[in-house]
């Protein structure tokens, strides 16, 4: 095992884990990149590190400066841990609908958390737009200055995946990867990994797994930014072509209902010991659909974005699932103990 100088060196270089049932059912080899093993426990540590390093390289960050961001949580956690390690502060604007577990993780990191109502992007008080205006204000008033991380339209996010995620996948599969697919929040992971892999080999196919309520499936499949339905997944589901997605076109596009993703998430806990968040379920459902379309014998990689404990109060809470009309596995219901305890 390597020896690191700081936690920052522990970001990236995550293992690939073979997904047994998904592989067996499709006759393909389907692997998930275990991004929940990053220090901030999500794929977004990579973007957090790259965005801060890029701002430093451009001379935009004085010691003690504030990094402001609008985030569903994971990017904020990544930014906060990198900022703490490098001597900056973080102010995070988050829609109040996001999981309490992510908000707690942000508080634990010492980020200043501003919870705001969840409103669509076209509303001037959308969390992303609020964070941009707050950053402008703090840049003028805070003695050490402030920057806006702007993960959606800052391509330092995508570049992180071109140089790290894509290269890692290429080497981990010894160049034998045939397909890559994931969902889109900012598009950094999908577009960046796609650019990096296609640079290595033009024959590698790319897919987008879009949750319901997002517009990109219709955009890439039918040329129209149009959303249908809704999803309980967090951190994904985009309604516009962000700067990170500019110039990107997938070979395959799928729209995945929550039921399909959650059945996979629940089965993985019990059958494979892997407890993942909802976006990983969307990704794996997409990988299975892509494997079926490409046919047996292919190697397909997707992203295991974060861990299930980040959504314990939602995805693994029977009351929440029932309220949303979603499948509720019987093992998460509270049950009387099955075995008698042999007390003396
Ligand atoms: N899954 C989760 C849980 C996330 O938090 C995010 C980031 N918002 C994504 C997937 C999507 O990643 P990206 O922003 O690179 O598209």
Main sheet: strands, sense, barrel: 6 strands, mixed
Radius of gyration: 20 Å
Q: Give the SSE string.
A: EHEHEHEHEHEHEHEHEHHEH
* Cα separation of the termini: 45 Å
Global morphology: globular
Q: If you average the pLDDT, what whole number results?
A: 97
Strand order of the largest sheet: 1-2-10-7-8-9
Domain count: 2
**Count of distinct strands:** 10
- Provide the low-confidence segments as ranges: none
Report the bound ligands by name, code or SMILES: 4'-deoxy-4'-aminopyridoxal-5'-phosphate
In helices, the fraction of residues equals 25-40%
What is the CATH-assigned architecture of the largest domain? 3-Layer(aba) Sandwich
Structural class: alpha/beta
CATH topology of the largest domain, what is it called? Rossmann fold
CATH class of the largest domain equals Alpha Beta
Strand coverage percent: 5-15%
Pfam family, one: PALP
Cofactor: pyridoxal 5'-phosphate
InterPro entries: Cys_Synth/Cystath_Beta-Synth, P-phosphate_BS, TrpB-like_PALP, TrpB-like_PALP_sf
Domain Tryptophan synthase beta chain-like PALP: 8-306
Kindly summarize this structure in a few lines:
The protein is α/β, with parallel strands linked by helices and 344 residues long. The protein is built from eleven helices and ten strands.
Notes on the protein architecture:
Helix content is 39%, strand content 15%. The protein has 344 residues and is α/β, with parallel strands linked by helices. The chain folds into two domains: 7-39 and 161-330, 3-Layer(aba) Sandwich (Rossmann fold), CATH 3.40.50.1100; 43-148, Rossmann fold. The strands form two sheets. The chain has a six-stranded mixed beta sheet with strand order 1-2-10-7-8-9, with helices on both faces. Helix 8 links the parallel strand 8 and strand 9. Helix 2 (44-57) packs across helix 6 (156-172), helix 6 (156-172) crosses helix 7 and helix 9 (258-272) packs across helix 10 (278-294). It starts with 15 loop residues before the first strand and ends in a 21-residue tail after the last helix. 4'-deoxy-4'-aminopyridoxal-5'-phosphate (PMP) is lined by residues 42-44, 72, 74-75, 183-190, 234-236, 277, 279, 305-306.
